[in-house]
Design brief:
- 22% of the residues lie in helices and 32% in strands.
- By secondary structure, the protein is an alpha+beta fold.
- A hairpin with a 5-residue loop joins β6 and β7 (110-116).
Length: 260
C-alpha cells in the first residue's frame, strides 16, 4: 500500500469538470525519490487522487520535437518570450494519445493546446500528418518562427504520474520512475539504447496566481520552485555539449549518476 492509496479518489471526468487548468501558473520542484515520503505525509487528508479504473499512477510516454538547430531547446534554455514545445503524448494505461503544443502566454502563464491522435501515430515518433495544419497555425499565432516540416524527434521521456487535487481546486502532479531516451532510435520509431534513469521526482503545482496549499507544504520542508524542465534537463543530461546555464544548479545536484 502506498501513501496515495489512503487518499479519496477523483475521476478524470470530475477533474475536468472542476478545473481543466490548461491555462495556469506552474511551479515546479525537483527532489530525490527518498524525499517524497516526507511530502506525502503532510498532504491534507481531503486531497483527492486521480483514479482511473483502480490505477493511481498512470504511465506516460512523451516524445519532444525540435528543429535541426534546436530552436525549442534554445528558446527554453534562454527563457525567450515566444518559447514553445511540440510533443506527442501517450497515456499508456488508457490508450489515449495527443499531439500537444505548449507556448508562453501573457503574464507568465503557460498555454497548452492539444488535439487527439491515434496511439499508433504517436509510436511512430513523428508529428502526425493530419495535425500539420493545426501545428503550423498554433505556432504562427504564438509568433514561433518554425513549422511542422522542420520538426524532428529529439527526446523520449517515460514516467509514472500521480495527480492530486487539493480542496482549494488547485492541482499537482507527481512524476516518478523518470527515464530519458535520445538517439537514432527515435528517428524511425525504434527504441534507443540510451535510456537513463536518475532517481529523481518532479512535482508540479498548478494554480492561479496564489500559491496552493501543497506549495506551502513544500516550502515548509525546504523545497523551493526550481528552474526545471523535463525536456530541458533531459536534453542537457543526454547531450552534455548543449548550453544549460539555466538549469545548472539542478543538473549538478540531481543528474550526476545515471543508471540504465
Amino acid at each position: 500500500m502506498t501513501a496515495f492509496d489512503a487518499l479519496p479518489p477523483i475521476s478524470l471526468e470530475e477533474i475536468n469538470a472542476e478545473a481543466a487548468m490548461l491555462t495556469r501558473v506552474d511551479r515546479k520542484y525537483v527532489m530525490r525519490r527518498e524525499q517524497l515520503d516526507a511530502v506525502l505525509r503532510r498532504v491534507p487528508d481531503d486531497t483527492r487522487v486521480l483514479d482511473i479504473d483502480g490505477v493511481r499512477q498512470q504511465r506516460y510516454r512523451t516524445v519532444y520535437f525540435d528543429t535541426e538547430d534546436l530552436l525549442s531547446y534554445r528558446m527554453t534554455s534562454q527563457k525567450r518570450r515566444h518559447r514553445f514545445k511540440v510533443r506527442t503524448r501517450v497515456y499508456l494505461d488508457t490508450r489515449a494519445s495527443f499531439c500537444e503544443i505548449k507556448t508562453s502566454g501573457p503574464r507568465g502563464l503557460t498555454v497548452k493546446q492539444r488535439v487527439p491522435i491515434g496511439v499508433a501515430e504517436a509510436l511512430e515518433n513523428a508529428v502526425p500528418t493530419h495535425t500539420a495544419r493545426w501545428v503550423d497555425a498554433t505556432l504562427g499565432a504564438a509568433r514561433v518562427p518554425t513549422c511542422h516540416r522542420e520538426l524532428r524527434p529529439v527526446l523520449l521521456n517515460r514516467y509514472c504520474r500521480t495527480t492530486l487535487c487539493p480542496s482549494d481546486l488547485g492541482r499537482a502532479t507527481i512524476d516518478t520512475d523518470i527515464a530519458f531516451t535520445t538517439g537514432d532510435g527515435l528517428s524511425h520509431g525504434g527504441r534507443s539504447e540510451q535510456e537513463r534513469h536518475y532517481g529523481i521526482v518532479f512535482i508540479e503545482t498548478k494554480s492561479g496566481s496564489s500559491p496552493s496549499r501543497l506549495d506551502r507544504i513544500l516550502w515548509q520542508l525546504g523545497h523551493r520552485p526550481a528552474r526545471v524542465s523535463k525536456f530541458g534537463t533531459g536534453m542537457a543530461a543526454l547531450n552534455p555539449e548543449l548550453p544549460h546555464n539555466r538549469w545548472a544548479p539542478v543538473m549538478r545536484e540531481y543528474y550526476r549518476s545515471p543508471s540504465l
